[in-house]
Amino acid sequence: MNSIASLLHVFFAVIWVGGMFFAYLILRPAAGSTLETPERLMLWRRVLAKFFVWVWKSVVIVPLTGYWLAYSLFSTMAAWPTHVHAMHGLGLIMVLVFLAVFFLPFRRLRDAVDTQDWQRGTEALANVRRLVAVNLVLGLLVVVIASGGRFALLG
Predict the structure, then answer these.
(1) pTM of the model
(2) How many alpha carbons lie under 13 Å from residue 136 in its C-beta half-sphere?
(3) Would you write out the chain's pLDDT as a tens digit for each of its 155 residues?
(4) Which one-letter DSSP state was computed for residue 116?
(5) From the CB of residue 32, how many other CB atoms can be counted at a distance below 10 Å?
(6) Which residues lie below 8 Å from residue 149, measured CB to CB, with a gap of 6+?
């Protein structure tokens, strides 16, 4: 069972963090330099709506499998190594940041695009971008901790 939990944990973490990396560092500059404001906002509304379906799955599956693995390997939270505590804390912050993105600026972006209020949409997208940047940094930090934390970074 731990093998399945580990597979799901890593699979959905990669989808979430990799999706943010692609969106922020690849799609955002390309869309910004080639599309006019209405087209760019409509693209982001559609892209984020589809991506967030997968992020919702990730914000459920990653914590559940993380808890499964942590408790099956270490029995109590007090026995978790430092790197597991770090991943846990950062992961919870990432979930909260995602919830903030989804329920605040993304909702405003969606509504603005649907009503063709391009100024409000531009402001909402800028807020989405800032929060996704925060979550991307946190996600990459978790990847560093997950891949090397138990060996060198946090003991």
Answers:
(1) 0.93
(2) 14
(3) 899 999 999 999 999 999 999 999 999 999 999 999 999 999 999 999 999 999 999 999 999 999 999 999 998 999 999 999 999 999 999 999 999 999 999 999 999 999 999 999 999 999 999 999 999 999 999 999 998 866 655 45
(4) T
(5) 12
(6) 81, 82, 83, 86, 87
